């Protein structure tokens, strides 16, 4: 059975309290024309509580990162338990910007994902190759290796979502060809089935990197692409809602 697609917005370090107007607008757009997908917004930590209170039934709210521990002496960090306490249902872990800016390794990402699962939340585990890796013909090998080490043993289709995000496609306006995307998502699917058996078919594998209303339909139609992780185009309700058209009749 094909899993219910997920379209997730990653607001990154964007958004102030006034940005709740975008959430409210999106809520109305979705109520008027419900898409055949789950919708999620991951705002900065400062907005998770307010957004969770305001988002209603149709839009889920998630965090963009968490610490691997539940609590303790880790100044400035936020735990999965805290996100859950604020109403988050999902947590993105291992985004390439975290890996690059904060030196997060696969082992650290896996520990964070385990912390997410331990709280009963859903982890969105990200992986993706830099352009030099793709040019060297090692994109699939690299991504499969990242996922093998970043996805925890206890992962199931219910508690874990995979996000393929080629680093060179993030915020650049460039996307993989549908052929390259199909190859990568097919390879990820095969690796999940090899590791988790038949359950591997149930995991959602999102594509992320310069998804917008103009290209979403083509990208989301690729085999084994079960939704999107959207950065820039998720900040404005109208743009993000346009992406959801890929899942409207
Ligand atoms: P983008 O970012 O849609 O702005 O390219 C995607 C992401 O990093 O999740």
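^ structure tokens above, recovered residues below v
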């Amino acid at each position: 059975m094909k899993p219910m697609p997920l379209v997730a917005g990653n607001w990154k370090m964007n958004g102030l309290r006034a940005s709740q107007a975008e959430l409210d607008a999106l809520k109305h757009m979705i109520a008027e024309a419900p898409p055949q997908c789950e919708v999620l917004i991951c705002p900065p930590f400062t907005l998770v509580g307010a957004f969770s209170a305001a988002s209603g039934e149709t839009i889920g709210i998630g965090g963009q990162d968490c610490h691997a521990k539940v609590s303790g002496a880790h100044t400035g960090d936020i735990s999965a338990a805290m996100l859950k306490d604020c109403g988050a249902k999902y947590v993105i872990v291992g985004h390439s910007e975290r890996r690059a800016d904060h030196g997060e390794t696969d082992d650290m990402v896996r520990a964070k994902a385990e912390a997410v699962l331990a709280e009963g939340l859903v982890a969105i585990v990200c992986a993706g190759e830099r352009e030099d890796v793709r040019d060297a013909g090692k994109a699939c090998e690299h991504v499969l290796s990242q996922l093998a080490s970043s996805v925890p043993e206890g992962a199931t289709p219910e508690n874990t979502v995979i996000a393929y995000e080629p680093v060179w496609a993030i915020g650049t306006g460039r996307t993989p060809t549908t052929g390259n995307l199909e190859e990568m998502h097919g390879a990820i699917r095969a690796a999940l089935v090899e590791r988790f058996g038949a359950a591997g078919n149930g995991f959602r594998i999102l594509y992320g990197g310069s998804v917008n209303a103009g290209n979403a339909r083509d990208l989301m139609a690729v085999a084994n692409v079960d939704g999107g992780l959207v950065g820039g185009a998720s900040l404005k309700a109208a743009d993000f809602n346009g992406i959801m058209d890929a899942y409207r009749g």
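The pocket of 2-phosphoglycolic acid is lined by residues 10, 165, 170-171, 208-211, 229-233 (CB under 6 Å).
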